[in-house]
Amino acid sequence: MKKLFWKDPYLTQCIATVTRIEGNHITLDKTILFAFSGGQASDSGTIHGYPVAAAKKIGREIVYEIDAAHDLQVGQQVKVVIDWEKRYKIMKLHFAAEIVLELMVQNFNNPPKIGANITAEKARIDFQWNGNISEVLPMLQKRIEEMIESNAPILSEFSDEEQEIRYWKIDGFGKVPCGGTHIKNTGEIGSVLLKRGKRLGANKERIEIYLC
Hints:
One of its GO terms (molecular function) is aminoacyl-tRNA ligase activity. Its cofactor is Zn(2+). The protein is of the alpha+beta class. The chain has two domains: 2-82, Elongation Factor Tu (Ef-tu), domain 3 (Beta Barrel), CATH 2.40.30.130; 86-211, 2-Layer Sandwich (Threonyl-tRNA Synthetase, Chain A, domain 2). It contains three helices and 16 strands. The chain has helices spanning 4-7, 84-107, 137-150; strands at residues 2-3, 13-22, 25-28, 30-31, 45-47, 50-51, 54-58, 61-65, 77-82, 113-118, 123-128, 155-160, 165-170, 174-177, 192-196, 204-211. The strands form four sheets. Strands 6-5-9-2-3-8-7 form a seven-stranded antiparallel beta sheet, with no helix packed on it. A four-stranded antiparallel beta sheet has the order 10-11-16-15, with helices on one face. Strands 12-13-14 form a three-stranded antiparallel beta sheet, with no helix packed on it. Helix 2 (84-107) packs across helix 3. The longest helix has 24 residues, at 84-107. The protein is elongated and about 55 Å long. It starts with a strand and ends with a strand. The relative contact order is 0.16.
C-alpha cells in the first residue's frame, strides 16, 4: 500500500484500487487516509462515497471500515476523499505538540513522555513530572511562539523507507523520529495556547495545546 499522505500530506483526494474486501473492511493499493498512529487521530473521509467509519493500521497495511451495504469489488477503482479541514487542524496541532515535546527534551533533561493524543480539537502530551508543570508553560509558550514566528521549514523524510521509519527535521532545532503527517513550515501553525491539563496522579502532568 502506497501511503500518499507521506509524499504529499496536502492531497485531498486520489484514485485508488481496491485490493481486498472482507465484509465491510477493505484495503487499497494507495491511500491518503491516515490511520491512528503515534497518538495522531485517524483522518475522516470517504471511499467511493462511503464514509470511513474507522481506519486501523495492521502491519504496513491500513484497513478501512465502511458501510456493510457497500457494493465494492476487488480491482475496482475508487475515489478517496479526506476531510481536509479536520486533517489540517490535526497537522497543525500535531506539529505544535512536536515542538513542545522537543522543547521539553532540550530544556528539562528529557522527562519521560507517558502519553500523547492529537485530534482536531486539541493536542495533549503527558509526562512523568515532579511538581506543577504550569510553572514552565510561560517559557514554553514564548519559545513556541518564536518558532512559529520564524516560519522555519520542516523537512519530513524516511530514515528507512523499507521499514517505513520517518523523521522530521528543523535545522538548528531538532531531528525527531515521527510517522505522522506534517506541515511544510512552522508558520502554518498560527496562534496556539498551552494549558495545564487535568491531574493524572502523583508525578504525572499533562500539557494541552489549542489552536487560537
